[in-house]
Records
---
Amino acid sequence: MLLDESLKPVSFTQRLLGWLIHAFTASGAYVGLLAMLAIYERNLLLALWLMSAAILIDAVDGIFARKIKIKQAVPEINGELLDNIVDFVNYTIVPCFFLLVTNLLPEYWRFACVMAITFSSAYQFTQVDAKTSDHFFKGFPSYWNIAVFYLFFWQMNSYANMAVLLMLAIMSFVPIKYVYPSRLDYLTENDFLRLSMAVMTVLWGAATAGLLWIYPESNYFLVAISMGYLLLYLAISLYRTWVPLSVTASSSK
């Protein structure tokens, strides 16, 4: 007879690691605050680097938390709530402040566009099934910090930027299932393909950081990797929306 995992005693090490991981997650909010300070001081490249650091924290903290069974280690803290609070700061509030301070949006439409982003993000974050049972995001997952990076890098017309952002805000309400890059359990039953997706996500991060490093110069190879991943991400998300992997089949592996 197997012992229920929740009944096993929690070691001091496991509990300490649990608190450290929660502190690591919470540090993302401080990084976001530093990013806002950099935006206020018009140090936009530093702000984008800090926004990237916040994404990195968010990308790995969940992996650490699942590794040590954090709900068992620190049961009095709601890690999902903490993660959502920090994510709303970094994925919505910080990039919205970036949009308000810079000239990426038309001057007289700036506040209306940012209001649309905050409202759509509030909806996306608070859906009961914002993260589906098979570990996908439902609706555009408020990747506003990433959107801001590309708009900053592309240097398009401010009205074109506004059109892109408003389209993404609308997509928050469209129930497409977007890939959750650090939760690929139900992406495919093939272990190699799951690993390949994880590797490509890391390559996208490296390529995008490379573009930020050499800015205002550019590099076609890095652009190809960065944009190619976005197209692949969207294609896989659309495919899994229309052809979902059976939760029962995958969980019985």
---
Amino acid sequence: MTDYPEIASRFARDTAGHQMTVLHDDGLYRHVRFTSNPRGYGEYWFDLITWPGRLAMVGDIGTDYVFSRQPDMFTFFRADRRWGINPHYWAEKLGGGRNSVKAYSETLLRQLVAERFVEDARFNGGVPAGTGRALRAWVLNEDLGDEHTARNVLEDFAYQGYEFKDAWEWDFHDYDSHFLWACYAIVWGIARYDRVRKYGLQQLAVGDLVASAVAEDRCLKAPTGCGQPLVSSDGTTRVFWDETEAKKYETEWQKTGLCPDCQDARDEAAS
């Protein structure tokens, strides 16, 4: 298991006001939404969607992830929950594999350099006096944000015969922040889902149905939509530029259950 406290803290801040809505829950077929926006979208919203053998995590972090391992993917992620997240193992279950969610990390490079220096100084015969100062001045004080530049700086370093001869073999790639955020989201989301079911509260979290909204000529109820009728009590409706625009909104409403105003709010939040 690997801990990433900075990402864990960021996730906690990003989702502090999130609530869960169960949009679908039928055996291995689930669709669970987590958001602080009563309309169903907004900053850092995310969905967990499962079907036999798959779990998709989608949302506002810019990247979607689909994992594949066993029939009930909630069970798969529950197995590791007590120890935190397990990005190394979970990344293997992505279609693109582990490397698809890794990126160059300047932080990791600095960490590896420091660890190697300490190891050589203590256990591998020592290092020349003044090496630490030279290393800070030559390498660690440089801008190492670009991997190619950073490798050149590291491979060029030499002080009184001490150098990193095998630096070209070092791997400076770590899991990117979006993927780590998604890992925390999956563990946290499944825990919330399990807690609701444990106490028999799932009915309080069940969302509205598109078919019901369309049949009743209204918008989906909160938190996904506003729940308002398409025609107000005084007979007024949304005014459109022309029939083409009106038809576009009507078609979308029949697909999503969202009234024109909620469609606009969704599109604005997603942009």
